[in-house]
Amino acid sequence: MPEQLFLLGNLGTMITYAAIAVAIAVPLARAGQLRANRLAVATALIFLTSAIGHGLHAYLAFANLDREEHSVAIGWLWALAWWNVFTAAVGVYYWTVRQRHAPLRGAIYTGPHQQRLLDEADAHRATLEAVVEHTDDAIIGLTLDGIVTAWNGGAERLFGYPAAEITGRSVALLADEEGGVEQAEIRRRIIDQRERGVTYETRRFAKDGTPIEVSLSVGAIRDRTGRPAGISVVARDITAVKEAAERRRVVEERTHQAQRMESLGKLAGGVAHDFNNILAIIVNYTDFAVEEAAGNESLETDLKHVRSAADRAINLTRQLLTFTRGDTIQPRDVNLNAALAEVQAMLERTIGEHINLITVPSAEPVVVHADPGQIQQVLLNLAINARDAMPDGGTLVLEANAAAIDGDELDMQPSLPAGTYARLLVSDTGEGMTADVAAHIFEPFYTTKPRGKGTGLGLSTVYGIVSEAGGSLNVYSEPGVGTTFRIYLPMVRVPGTATPAASRQDDPPPGSGQTVLVVEDEPALARVVTRILAGAGYHVLTATDGRQALALFHQHDCDALLTDVIMPEMSGRRLAEIIHGTHPDLPVLYMSGYSNGLLGTTHVLDGDIAFIEKPFTANDLLHKIAEVVPTAVRPSR
User: Fold this and answer.
1) Does residue 320 contact residue 307 with C-beta atoms inside 8 Å?
2) How far apart are CA 425 and CA 478, in angstroms?
3) DSSP assignment of 159-224, as one string?
4) How many CA atoms are closer than 13 Å to the CA of 406, on its beta-carbon side?
5) What stretches pass through the bilayer (predicted)?
6) Which residues contact 49 (CB under 8 A, 6 or more apart)?
7) How far apart, in whole angstroms, are the C-alpha atoms of residue 134 and residue 153?
8) Distance of CA 338 to CAs 62, 348, 440, 493, Å?
9) Over the stretch 286-341, which tens digit does the pLDDT of each residue have?
10) How many other C-beta atoms lie within 10 A of the C-beta of residue 476?
């Protein structure tokens, strides 16, 4: 009877242990965790070895039921002993694995306190899951091979893939070929080099192909042993942030460009001011020499060459002054269609047969208030540049129309408020420009032409004219494709009529002994002015600064004051104010290498003063002085 009970007990225990082992192993196999979940496998294995051990005991009991001596073969005893040793080893392995899993340390069955802690942990986990699910950031779980295992609602909204559609697929689906290589490299760094995490910005693509600028935070998911078991990715859409940053960068760059242009303009104006003083001396002394060389044909020819070179230098300084936005202008209402027609007539004779010139006038009159000569100069400068960019021929298109802008354009130089503007377009099919070249083209003396082929003032002159007229420029160019300049100018709603001023070629009236106090800090130019006025019948007093001028004024009767504007210690404006304190009716004629427009904008002079711009000829000076000096000679004191 005891043998039967021993047999039945071992059979029952074997079946129970085997059932427990199967109950653990089958779900693991179905979940594919036989290799990953070592604790569960060790638990199933210890139950399996125990089941086999009890099966061996049951077999031995069954084999000895009919034997009287109940002897057991020595071989079976050794087999049973070794199997018990193996079972003990499995038990040791189980406890080793179990100790690596902190949640299982202590009692397997929990009491009320432990259960409350577990419930709180479950609630905390549910809260975290809700936060992860509803955050705007995309939170993605990956295997070490980059297969998506977790995909929250933020990822669905950002990339457009439902979780059911992308789970189990490679995350490389979100990137192009280059991005896929980048992803693999980041995973390698995290897994092999054990980096805590990597944060970087890159581009990914939504389900519909839309590019998305994202900030990625990638980290490893590690098990209790510290080995990587997966990868977590947090993706944030920074497309709007990068666009805003780019807009701020462009605005800052445009501000710096404006500041640089202003500084260059001041520099150019200063150079022109001093250079004009020199040119005034050269021009007038050359004229004096021509008069003295009458009858000497060879010497006259040489002097005419000198005068021709001086005239070229004068034109160059005028371009500089135009760049400084202070050139003397005569604005009037100008129909851009008429300006196009005039420029077309000029270009058809000079631009060359290899250029196909096309003009597209506006369907409606487009009128601006500007100097017509300067409008022509803008179009001609741009057309000449376009011609030079098409040495092998091409097409040049000149257009006039009206265009509305919203005021937020970032590529306008300078910026303009929102509104409707008159627009000129000059387009060519030439060589085009790189972005680096286009960023500097309006700077004076900047040129890409070979030495001796350009001064670098053409486009800076265009910039000066347009900005002085209250307008703006836009440049679009692609190397090998061509260039388009768009010029925006304030539009006149009710165009007026204007007649061009006639050029004064008549002889100036001579002086009749009137006394003119000349104040010029450049001694050589002061001598030239003195010679011109004295030769025309004026009595001239000359001073080189304000203090000397005041002393001469108090010593002599003066009919007019001719003074430089910008002088050391005392400006011409201040000198005139002091004199007008006691002689408010004294006529004053200002002269300067800076233009009247520039001096007016900087409030050095008012807009209604008498002004002559250097360099001037004797004819110009005498006409101007005749307009301000009284015709009658003041009686001596």
Assistant:
1) no
2) 16
3) H---HHHHTTSBGGGGS-HHHHHHHHHHHHHHHHS--SEEEEEEEEE-TTS-EEEEEEEEEEEE-T
4) 3
5) 6-28, 40-62, 74-95
6) 83, 86, 87, 90
7) 6
8) 122, 15, 31, 17
9) 888 888 888 888 888 888 888 888 877 776 676 666 555 444 567 888 899 998 98
10) 15
